[in-house]
Write a structure and sequence with these properties.
The protein has helices at about 1-10, 10-20, 30-35, 40-50, 70-80, 85-100, 120-130, 130-135, 220-240; strands spanning about 55-60, 65-70, 110-115, 140-145, 155, 160-165, 170, 175-185, 190-200, 205-210. By secondary structure, it is α+β, with helices and mostly antiparallel strands. The chain is globular, with a radius of gyration of 18 Å.
Length: about 250
């Protein structure tokens, strides 16, 4: 975590993260104009942030888009803040994020999260599609999946009620899963799309979660996903659920 603290120590880099939190998927030109500094200076700061895994990027056509990757920050929070955090504080943060995430960017993903987990692709895939596993990190939700294109992919809450509804759009076992996403707690939210990508890297797996047009889901996903993925990582690496999830 030393790289994370080093990256966060600089006010300009914190401003860059704030900018990407407020508007995901910005190009270098957009970030440069927002900071009022040279292109080279912004590139240097972005390099530090990318090395700390706080920023990730996607290239589409001629443009390279940058995104805040909240996973390392969530890990810091879970290690030092969560033991002292009250449940209402988490609820308030989730509500604030939901109300502020109204800007739509339909032509490209506007939420990208990357993390590295010491596990195998098979174990990670099982954690995503196995109801016994998801119940330990997905707010108690148990996935029910028909793992074929067009098959249902939804979550039931601990009481057996539908929590999230969707269907499989694309599936490559142990590598990629794309599903639609409709949050039952957000009746006015749109049906959006979520993509899981698994890439083996030595003894670890790189998991990239992309939520397309996340703001229109009106479900507070910007604050929800980091905690879910942190719980997934903790479960696979320690065999125990994340303590912070018991406070939801």
């Amino acid at each position: 975590m030393d790289a994370v603290f080093k990256a966060l120590a600089d006010p300009t880099r914190r401003q860059l993260l704030d900018s990407l939190r407020d508007k995901a998927g910005q190009t270098l030109t957009e970030l440069e104009s927002g900071l009022g500094m040279t292109r080279f200076g912004v590139m240097k700061h972005l390099k530090v942030l990318e090395e700390a895994k706080l920023v990730t990027s996607r290239k589409e056509g001629r443009f390279k888009y940058h995104y805040l990757n909240a996973s390392p920050i969530q890990e810091v929070a879970d290690r030092w803040i969560a033991p002292y955090q009250k449940p209402f504080a988490r609820y308030a943060l989730n509500l604030k994020a939901m109300l502020e995430s109204r800007q739509r960017m339909p032509d490209k993903p506007n939420f990208v999260l990357e993390t590295y987990i010491r596990t195998t692709p098979r174990a990670l895939w099982d954690a995503i599609v196995n109801p016994e596993m998801t119940a330990q990190y997905y707010y108690g939700g148990r996935v029910q999946a028909d793992l074929r294109v067009g098959g249902r992919f939804h979550y039931l809450d601990p009481d057996g009620e539908m929590n999230l509804d969707g269907e499989v759009v694309e599936i490559v076992p142990e590598k990629k899963l794309v599903t639609t996403f409709k949050a039952m707690w957000a009746p006015n939210g749109a049906v959006t799309r979520v993509q899981y990508e698994i890439e083996q890297m030595g003894e670890t797996c790189k998991l990239t979660l992309t939520h397309f047009d996340a703001a229109s889901a009106e479900a507070g996903v910007e604050s929800g996903w980091p905690l879910i993925i942190a719980g997934l990582k903790t479960l696979l690496e320690t065999g125990k659920p994340l303590a912070a999830l018991d406070m939801q």
